[in-house]
Amino acid sequence: MYQQMIFVNLPVNDLDASKKFFTELGYTINPQFSDEKAASVVISDTIVAMLLTKPFYATFTKKEIADARTTSEVLVCLSAESRQQVDELVDKAIAAGGTASGETQDHGFMYGRGFDDLDGHTWEVIWMDPAAVQG
Predict the structure, then answer these.
(1) Which tens digits make up the pLDDT trace of 13-34?
(2) pTM of the model
(3) Are 32 and 100 in contact (CB under 8 A)?
């Protein structure tokens, strides 16, 4: 059965530093779709973050490239299997040079935290109780 995928394209200032950051979070780089201008970060079977140098990113748009440290252009939210997995991923991101973003959200049935990566892109990580999702 076909599974739709998402490819999140993000401009980065230092491709090597960004690759190191995401591998420290436990993700892998797909060398087939990576070179000196781009890195394909495999987050799951259906989610890929494409890290693009700013000059390469600019070839895909006529718009000004946002500085994610001062302008919010997107909030990327990843699901987690547990509260512990939320904390582990965000703690790894902070240890790898990212910064905490926002406040911890704890609504009982849903728990989330966030971080900004090296370029200021905001990543949220949430866990939701499966029973609450089913209604």
Answers:
(1) 999 999 999 999 999 999 999 9
(2) 0.91
(3) no
